[in-house]
Every structure is written in C-alpha cells, then in structure tokens.
Design brief:
about 75% helix, about 0% strand
C-alpha cells in the first residue's frame, strides 16, 4: 500500500533535514561540547559503572547527554562524524516526534506543516544539552498524549511512565527542562476521564525517578548534593558569566587587544587535548584553535 502524499512528503522532508544538518551544521563549537566528549571517552574507557561512581562535575553528571554520546562513539568509532551524528540524530528525531504529535492531534497535513518548524540546522550537529532536549521533551509529550487516548489502564500507566522517563532525561540534560511537567499537568487536567489523576501521575512518576536516581548517585559517588549543585548551576545561569568573560577576552585577542588572560588559553588547550584524544581535529578546527591561542608573553 502506497503511503499518503503527506507521509511521503514527510519522509522527503526528513531526508532533507538529515542532509542539511550534515552539510551545514556547525559541529563541535569549542564550548562545553568538549567536556561532554571527554566524559563520554571516560565512560567507554573506564566502564559505565566505574565512570558513574567517579562523577565529580556537572558535565559528566548529565548522563542523558554523555551516555548516548558514549554509545555513538562505541558504535561508530572515535571520529568527528560519530560525534556529530549524536546531535544530528536527536535533531532529526525531534522533527519526527513533532510530526507524530501533530498527526494524532490534527491529522496528516497539519503534521507535515508543523514538522517544518523544528529546523535547527546550524546547531543540529552540536554537542550540547540543547541538542537533545527538544527530542526528550517531545517524546515526553507524545507519551502523555498516547496515555490520554486510552482509559486509565495498565497501558496508559506505561505511557505515563514513558513520559516521566523522558521528562527525567530532559531534566538530566538541562535541569530547567523539567518545566515540561507543567504542560503534562495542564494537559491531564483537560481530560474528561479522571483529570486529577492524569494531571498528577506524570509528576509523581517523575519525582519518584528523580528521588531514586539521586539516592543511587549518592550511594555510588558518596556525594548526595551533586545533583542539587547542577540544578542550582542551570537554574541561576551562573555559567553564562564565565562564558561571557572567556568570549570577550578571546574577541579582544583576535582583534589585537592585550587583555588575553589564561582562561581562554586553558580552554583552548583542553579543546585541543580532547580533540587529539578522540580524533576530532580537522584543518578548520586547527585554524580556529590558533585564533584563540594566547600570544607568547614577550608579544604582549
């Protein structure tokens, strides 16, 4: 049986999404992405359980970013393409999950139209939490939608559990992404069948997963507050101050200024070390690293 025109068009759109991201995405951005590459390398080299036991920073702690990246490295090897495929896959999957949500709500043509919206081409191959959270959030919404199509039975409970799991993945990648619980709760309240239970169930399951995971991390690492520190880090935006300082200093140096301190140099050295370790240095990256390198002390 031939696919309907909207579904055929969606498949062509998905192929175009993949090609555009592969050819025009920025790839590694020399920001926090190298911290995630390093953490994924550690996870594969040490083994996942020893790696989790040794977690000591907020980047390694984002397991919903690090562990999928570790899988991609293990399957496709240590090269830049395997690293870019993570963001590319999640970015294209977010297009697919958007199509499925709209398909169940408003039909095929509306789904095709809505699927053209999440087109993060430039950032589609980056390695940041923002690269994976759109898919996780979409999957959480889709799970809740499938649950609300049914009476509150065992299968509906399983769909709500899936929605809670993907909400947790969103929260692990970017703590502020837990706001998706508001959408799930409001959506549940609009249902005619037991709205209070449907509104509360995703949140109850989510907090049960969070409590169990935080407790397990505390037992394994001996640090019961690492998750709380990450939540404060993401929620207060303190990381942006560090990025602004490093960026302004780098711009001054590239423009010929004299304010280059050791923070961007240390970051550049770390990027180079991780790149060489994972086989991700390309000629254009070497050029970009050279621009960010501090000049010798006698030239300041």
């Amino acid at each position: 049986m031939l696919a309907s025109p909207p579904r055929t068009a969606f498949l062509l759109l998905l192929a175009a999404c993949f090609w555009l991201r592969l050819h025009y995405g920025q790839g590694l951005a020399f920001a926090d992405d190298f911290n995630y590459v390093s953490a994924a390398l550690d996870a594969n080299e040490q083994g996942w359980l020893p790696f989790i036991k040794g977690i000591s920073n907020i980047y390694a702690n984002r397991l919903s970013v690090v562990l999928p990246l570790a899988v991609f490295q293990a399957v496709f090897g240590r090269n830049e393409l395997s690293l870019e495929l993570l963001g590319l896959s999640f970015s294209c999957a977010s297009v697919g999950i958007t199509f499925l949500i709209a398909l169940r709500l408003h039909g095929e043509w509306a789904a095709l139209l809505v699927a053209t919206i999440p087109q993060e081409i430039w950032y589609g191959t980056s390695l940041l939490p923002d690269s994976v959270t759109p898919f996780y959030m979409g999957a959480a919404l889709y799970g809740a939608l499938r649950a609300q199509d049914r009476l509150l039975d065992a299968r509906a409970f399983a769909w709500y559990a899936l929605a809670a799991f993907f909400t947790f993945c969103t929260f692990e990648a970017r703590a502020t992404g837990g706001v998706v619980l508001l959408a799930l709760g409001l959506w549940g309240l609009m249902q005619p069948d037991r709205p209070i239970v449907r509104a509360a169930l995703p949140g109850v399951l989510f907090f049960a997963i969070v409590a169990g995971t935080w407790g397990l991390f505390g037992v394994l690492t001996g640090d019961y507050r690492i998750q709380l520190r990450q939540l404060v880090h993401d929620g207060t935006g303190t990381h942006w101050t560090r990025h602004r300082q490093a960026l302004s200093t780098s711009i001054l140096h590239v423009a010929g200024g004299s304010a280059c301190d050791q923070r961007p140099c240390a970051h550049t050295s770390a990027c180079r070390a991780v790149s060489e370790r994972s086989g991700t240095l390309r000629s254009e990256h070497l050029h970009r690293l050279s621009l960010l390198s501090c000049p010798p002390s006698n030239s300041r």
